[in-house]
Amino acid sequence: QVQLVESGGGLVQTGGSLRLSCAASGSSFSNYRIGWFRQAPGKEREFVASISWSGLAAAYYDSVKGRFTISIDNAKNTVYLQMNSLKLEDTAVYYCAAGSYGSNWRSYPYWGQGTQVTVSA
Question: What distance in Å separates the CA atoms of residue 30 and residue 109, rounded to the nearest whole number?
Fold first, then answer.
């Protein structure tokens, strides 16, 4: 079983920055890939970024490339999502998840509770 707890969401103006954190615990969590997903009201859950616990093979959704950075602090068992140059369309509930591979949220069996990110004009 893997437990994930997100933090760091909030309200920010367009062009601002936020850093989300995902603290992992439980058995064998380091065997899973960690992904960030987001879901806006009335929209499908979509992939944002993912990374392995080795810090290798980071992947990003096209719309966030160059603005978001995913990273890992193994000593703290925490995955971060640094979000810069935020846009209105980045507004969503952001979830971290642990899974096997890829950008399909159905491949990730373990989920955090989510943290709200709201970007205002």
Answer: 14
